Amino acid sequence: MMKSSPLRLLTRCSGVHLPLDAKIPSRIFGRHKCSCLTLENTFKCYDLETGPTMDVELSREDALAMYTKMLEVRRMETVAGNLYKQRQIRGFCHLYTGQEAVAVGMKQCLRQCDSVITAYRCHAWTYLMGVSMHEIMAELLGVRTGCSRGKGGSMHMYTENFYGGNGIVGAQVPVGTGVALAHSYRNDNAVCVVLYGDGAANQGQVFESFNMAKLWCLPCIFVCENNHYGMGTHEKRASAMTEFYMRGQYIPGLWVDGNQVLAVRSATQFALDYALNQGPIVLEMSTYRYVGHSMSDPGTSYRSRKEVQAVREQRDPIISFRSQIIALCLADEEELKILEDKTKKQVDKECNKASADKEVDLHELHTDIYAKNVDGKIRGVSGFNLEHIKLAEVCFGKPKKTPASEIKEEPVVEKDAKKGKAEEGKAKEGKAEEGKAKEGKAKEGKAKKDSKDPNAVKDPKAAKEPKAVKDAGDNKGKPPASKAAKQPKAAAPPAQKPPTKAPPSPPKK
Amino acid sequence: MLRSRLIQAASSAQRAFSTSQKALAAKQMTVRDALNSALDDELARDDRVFILGEEVAQYDGAYKISRGLWKKYGDKRVIDTPITEMGFAGIAVGAAMAGLRPVCEFMTWNFSMQAIDHIINSAAKTFYMSAGAVNVPIVFRGPNGAASGVAAQHSQCFAAWYAHCPGLKVISPYDSEDARGLLKAAIRDPDPVVFLENELVYGTAFPVADNVADKDFVVPIGKAKIMRPGKDITLVAHSKAVETSLLAAAELAKKGIEAEVINLRSIRPLDTATIFASVRKTHHLVTVENGWPQHGVGAEICARIMEDQTFFELDAPVWRCAGVDVPMPYAKTLEAHALPRVQDVVDATLKVLGGKVGKAVAAAK
Among A103, B106, B191, B256, whose CB has the most other CB atoms within 10 angstroms? Predict the structure, then answer.
């Protein structure tokens, strides 16, 4: 395990180097707008000529913003953990407690255009990428206000430029590399941050992704969040080489003390510049999770309580950053205390909102399976009695817009095809384009939009039971004679081409 | 890996087929050209479309489906990948999530099993899991099913495998019209599409109508096509089994039996309306497929019929002709017997028709 690294502090005004543990009464210095400090023992470089900046600037604004975010994430995860214990959250629930500095520090220097994809431990990232705590907690509780409308759960939350959690260990790595490929394809000067754990670091597809990312020089930041345990197995027992920042072999790497938010921020800034100019880079963020792998893991059989306690005391990302803020005279004890109380209350209030929300409507079971459903009905438990409902407009992807003049109507050659279909396709294409240009997040709003899909139900509420029941009835009864008569026509060959006569002769053997 | 062997097999298959249709007067198009021109059209139409896969660029495609496209569109639009299916399938899915429209070629579908997690878990399920926030407009394509002499690991039909999964659209074209129209439709589709081609017909020239060459020619996904109308029995097939069925229908015609042959085109969604309508007319059904029988496409069709009123229209049980329930053997004769042959389909048809055969023959006279 990494030792806690002492920091040399340097206040801009005095120019005096101060050790981190120096007790400086804040009164003397007052509140600075901005301070400087020198990071030490926070980086190790692999195949890099220069590393990140060690002398970093920290403004009061940034300090408080990052501190607040870390507090929020920790509190949110505590609330989630409690709700799980009360059996209100089901199934999987992987908490980020202890790793806050990684997500908060990284997000601090990512730009609006940059993309992120992570693994199943995704609550913190989802929040930082812009989903409200209310929506996240609602998703965990499986209620209708959830950011994936209760259909994704703990591991499947998405928002603009955030391509999710992913429930399959390592699968997000090639997918994220593909997002980076899209950035490179569009030449939009953005990067994709791809996060995975020390467990996933041994997955074959991670190395496949490294290879192609380097080969094609993709703007991709691979981040191994090393919390030292892949599920319940210590890194030393799972990896033949535990220097994960060197595991890219031909990709330069950087080891970062992932429990120091300023080190993370500095490393990310460096990686961002590197990825944009020179291609992929691997960051290993050494961190620690206080909780078990998931809620079913007490996290004590494969490590000692003492070990966890020691990290909490010596390397906690929140406590250490708090001391830094005070030592740098960016805020004082009292002020932080107030902030902490306020944040806790706010988080609780936000999360509580979700508990009052209603369950997901039953009809949402059969919504949004296809962006363009061409099947008739969806099969229910017993028979094809469910209507495919479309609530969402497509999509978050922001492709370079194809000029409208080049998008051609999709002619439907088959005579039988409903006339509306061609128009529908056209309308949708146009709409999707518009939608992409706009914000992708306001799902609620989207849901209410008339999607022009014949299968779509304009008012989601109108699509509830009665309709489904009616359909079921239809299905049971013998198809009406008129319908039956129409069907053969519907199946007629397209445009009555010259009837296909002889099939091609079979291979001469 | 038997990739080089596969390519050899492909070129020998091409030799065997290339002259077969030249005599016909109608406009001809090989399946290879149909696919190639479909890709060309869509690359030109939409700058978000790109192709990636093994040897698709400089080598012109292992089966020459992407011939000339790299020269025309360059490195950005036609990308050679390493031989790492899981990685590049995942990358293609990521690019699709981020708004591009990748066409991901598997040299053959057999290798897609290394990437099946990304096809199912990353591509098929994301639209639903994200409550419609992230769609995945991607086409996975490549040759599917038994080729010639490439043995068990390289001879397998994946139609039933992928058709099992909600969120995917699964297409299995037979002739040039299917291949061109459906591939274009698949690329324009906002959902993940599994496009199962057949290597053995790549070099076959089929007669096509004039409009098939149009830039905007598309065949709608989810609609079957009646290849040959008939009134006595329905034969439902997809991909190369359509050829077997058509040949069987020609045989049966000699006996005075008029078989209706349905080319499914789409496996998911399955155009049951067309099948049901046909069965209501013929009252008999045989399904023909080259995949394995258990939980196969034919099995699904049987189940669908039983769950519908059409069941009562049947005068005899539905019968399945499918690949023999064994891994594909290598030896030529064994291989030939591992798939339904024309005679098998004829026999099954006669069995299903039973006593009616005599009547039909009598009526024909």
Answer: A103
Residues B231 and B142 both lie in one domain: no
Indicate if B27 and B176 belong to the same structural domain: yes
Catalogue the active-site residues of B: 85, 154
Residue A505: CB atoms within 10 A of its CB come to 14
Tell me if B218 is assigned to some domain: no
A393 contacts in B (CB within 8 Å)?
A: 132
Q: Which residues of B touch A168 (CB under 8 A)?
A: 117, 121-122
Cα–Cα dist B109/B265, whole Å: 17
The enclosing domain of B254 has a CATH number of 3.40.50.920
SS3 readout for A233-258? EEHHHHCCCCCHHHCCCCCCEEEEEC
**Contacts (Cβ under 8 Å, ≥6 apart) of A184:** A216, A217, A218, A219
Helix (H, G, I), strand (E, B), or coil: what is residue A326? helix
Q: What is the distance in angstroms between the Cα of B217 and the nearest Cα belonging to chain A?
A: 7
State the complex-level ipTM.
0.91
**Which residue matches tokens 């981040």?**
A223
Q: Can you spell out the DSSP letters for A23-92?
A: ---HHHH---SEEEEE--S-EEEES-SS---SEEEEEHHHHHHHHHHHHHHHHHHHHHHHHHHTT-S-S-
CA B14, CA B199: separation in Å to the nearest integer?
A: 9
CA distance A123 to A128: 9
Looking at residue B361, its pLDDT comes to: 59
Q: Is the separation of the CB atoms in A42 and A256 below 8 Å?
A: yes
- CB < 8 Å to B222, chain A: 374-375
Using the 8-state DSSP alphabet, how is residue B121 labeled? I
Note the pTM of the prediction, 2 decimals.
Answer: 0.83
Q: List all residues 6 or more positions away from A145 whose beta carbon is below 8 Å from its beta carbon.
A: A134, A135, A138, A353, A354, A357
CA B161 – CA B172 distance, rounded (Å) = 13
Q: Which domains does chain A have, with CATH numbers?
A: 8-356 (3.40.50.970), 362-478 (no CATH)
Those residues whose C-beta lies under 8 Å from the C-beta of residue B19, and which sit 6 or more positions away, are: none
- Put simply, the answer to whether A205 touches B90 (Cβ < 8 Å) is yes
State how far residue B150 is from chain A, nearest Cα, in angstroms.
16
Which pLDDT tens digit goes with each residue over B123-140? Answer: 999 999 998 889 999 999
Interfacial A residues in 289-318 facing B (CB < 8 Å): none
Contact assignment for A504 to B17 by CB distance below 8 Å: yes
Residues B188 and B100 occupy one common structural domain: yes
